[in-house]
Amino acid sequence: MERVLIVDDHPLVRDGLRTVIAVAFDRTELFEASSIAEAVVILDREGDFDIVLLDLNMPDAEGFSGLRTLRDRFPSVPIAMVSGAVESGLVSAAIANGAAGFIPKSMKRGAIVGAIQAVLVGDIYIPEEFRLGEGASSESDDISRRIATLTPQQTVVLGLVVAGKLNKQIAYELDVSMTTVKAHVSAILAKLNVYSRTQAVILANKVHFTGPVAPRP
């Protein structure tokens, strides 16, 4: 591993992660950002990174919008979510929104290193207690996999559907035709294997999916 970007608005957390990485990985160049905007600037300026460690709660992002922003702009860079809050729905939602892993801040140093190593070799890291989860966790994983098959535009539309927007409102917000919106909604229902908008919303809510911020026309 050569280059790592730590994105967290708490200096103590960044210091802790920097220490873990510096001890475990030789010759690693570390970068830090305290906001999504700062992370975008660094990624634009510095080019390729081996991994980005991104805090779930950032001051200039809502839900998983920060993750979505980085995934859309830098699709080749693996991004692992790092969070103090850990529950099955959050883990599944992070993966559904494009994260390469979910690392709880409460994990021991050795486990954090192991999680980073898993992401570096191309695996999607999920904490063991959720990998071994029972029915509810398995259902969340299945829903997350379905959501992950959506295109970026379909993901935006699903987020607006979850927010309670009607087709005409979605068309206005995205500056597209009603026909285009209907086509997206039909594709979403097919990929999620449901038959109505209500069922799609119920599935999305089970994994805390909110969708990326809709682009402004």
Q: Please, could you describe this protein's structure?
A:
The protein folds into 2 domains: 3-131, Rossmann fold, CATH 3.40.50.2300; 149-206, Orthogonal Bundle (Arc Repressor Mutant, subunit A). Helix content is 54%, strand content 11%. The chain has helices at residues 11-24, 36-46, 65-73, 88-96, 109-120, 128-131, 135-148, 152-162, 167-174, 178-192, 197-206, and strands at 3-7, 29-33, 51-55, 79-83, 101-104. The chain has a 5-stranded parallel sheet, sandwiched between helices. α4 (88-96) runs parallel beside α7 and α9 (167-174) crosses α10.
Indicate the topology:
Layout lengths: L2 E5 L3 H14 L4 E5 L2 H11 L4 E5 L9 H9 L5 E5 L4 H9 L4 E4 L4 H12 L7 H4 L3 H14 L3 H11 L4 H8 L3 H15 L4 H10 L11
Helix pairs in contact: 4-7, 8-10, 9-10
Question: Short summary of the structure?
Answer:
The chain is of the alpha/beta class. 54% of the residues lie in helices and 11% in strands.
